[in-house]
Design brief:
Mean pLDDT: 74
Helix content: 55-70%
Distance between the termini: 69 Å
Strand order of the largest sheet: 3-4-2-5
Shape: elongated
């Protein structure tokens, strides 16, 4: 199995097998557009469930008897004069419960503690209360937003300097794609957003950017000197770069997702819901999947679309198309023509405009240049034939001091016996 994967990776790198990622960009754009619309609608309709660290409030954590049920805890909280509280079991603690409420005053906090103690039979000293003010939550939200904006600005500046500004735009689009999808998943599933979520979000943006930079570096390598010929368009070179880095992207993503998935499963089953480890692992898992998708199906196709709009790459695409059609026509004509005959000039140029004729001549010149092997790869006979076909006539004809290319072959005489042409000294056996 591993050997087959290695063979597929080698074929993708050499271009023997190719997946047309860039050519099907409309399909990937449609899929991403549908996911983005669903995410945006979820954000507008359901919104995000921010934790106490962002919106402020109080968290009551306490142990209870094994017979205590969820409805009993909810009724005790309601009797304490608090509505809209989030009640959940804490699996990390034996028969532990957690109650999240809105911001409470001092007397309201004392009243709720006494109610929980009397209704559930819990000692007041066993109830742990954590209070976060609204100002602290707003500061956390502001700092997280500032960190995100600073991260995006620095990334765009770095890519513009290290690569070019169109690559920076394509990477920025991919990062926004990952950001909207990750937040949309949180809104759809109702997951709670905490500071750990923000840390994980910044982490996955860096991971997505790393994968995109690897692909862009290969694109830059494949497109170096591309405008000097007429072999490949920018989209074709970018698609080759994607295929060459595809196996690396898949392997990197799988290796990164396996431990994150293990952490997510352990945090959910053993520690219960809405713990920091689960929140961090969840955003990492969703973001890594989205980042792998965007680096392959979004970033490079967007870059190719931006580059193909430039005049020089439009002209390159035309030259490649003319060369491809002219090369095929030349090969077909050479295959059909008799051996030693030369194609009639202008045979396939009927009805073409002067500009098309010029492009056709350029494509034929490029094809002819590619078809002739280097001088050091020619054999002695091919060198002699090439020299005889050079301008000025065959070598040795009318040129004093020039050796003949080889012995002249004597014409065969017809009607005679083969014995009279037998070399001297050899007798026919009887």
């Amino acid at each position: 199995m591993m050997s087959r994967l290695g063979q597929i990776g080698g074929k993708l790198y050499r271009g023997e097998v190719s997946i047309n990622f860039v050519g099907r960009q409309r399909l990937w754009y449609a899929i991403s557009g549908a996911i983005l619309v669903i995410s945006i609608v979820a954000l507008l309709v359901r919104g995000l469930d921010f934790s106490v660290d962002f919106k402020g409030g109080a968290v009551f954590t306490f142990p209870a008897s094994s017979t205590t049920s969820l409805s009993q805890v909810q009724n005790a909280v309601t009797d304490g004069g608090v509505s809209g509280a989030i009640v959940q079991r804490v699996n990390g603690q034996t028969n532990g419960w957690q109650v999240q409420t809105k911001s409470l005053t001092g007397p309201q906090t004392v009243t709720l503690e006494n109610t929980l103690s009397s209704k559930l039979g819990v000692n007041t000293n066993s109830i742990s209360v954590t209070t976060v003010g609204p100002s602290w939550g707003s500061q956390i939200s502001g700092k997280a937003l500032e960190a995100l904006i600073a991260f995006l600005v620095v990334i765009v500046l770095y890519l513009s300097i290290a690569f070019e500004w169109k690559m920076a735009i394509a990477a920025f689009v991919a990062l926004l794609h990952d950001l909207v999808i990750a937040t949309g998943v949180y809104a759809l599933a109702g997951f709670q957003v905490s500071p750990a979520t923000v840390i994980g979000l910044l982490t996955i943006l860096g991971y997505s950017l790393y994968d995109t930079v690897v692909v862009f570096d290969k694109v830059r390598e494949n497109t170096a000197g591309l405008l000097g010929g007429a072999r490949t368009t920018y989209s074709q070179a970018a698609n080759l770069a994607l295929n060459q880095t595809l196996v690396r992207s898949i392997n990197t993503s799988l290796i990164a997702l396996l431990p994150v998935a293990a952490i997510l499963i352990v945090a959910t089953t053993l520690l219960g819901a809405n713990n920091e480890l689960e929140e961090l692992a969840l955003v990492l898992f969703v973001g890594m999947l989205s980042g792998t998708y965007s680096s392959i199906f979004i970033a490079t196709p967007v870059l190719a679309d931006l580059k193909e709009r430039e005049p020089q790459y439009k002209a390159l695409a035309k030259r490649v198309a003319v060369r491809s059609s002219g090369g095929r026509a030349t090969r077909r004509a050479a295959a059909k023509a008799p051996s030693g005959s030369r194609a009639r000039p202008g045979a396939d140029t009927a009805g073409l405009s002067p500009a098309q004729l010029a492009e056709d001549e350029q494509g034929d010149a490029d094809f002819a240049a590619d078809a002739v092997p280097p001088a050091d790869e020619l054999t002695a006979d091919e060198l002699t034939t090439t020299a005889s076909l050079a301008p000025g006539g065959p070598a040795g004809r009318g040129t004093p001091g020039t050796a003949r290319p080889g012995p002249r072959q004597q014409p065969r005489r017809s009607g005679g016996s083969t014995a009279r042409h037998r070399p001297a000294g050899k007798k026919k056996r009887r």
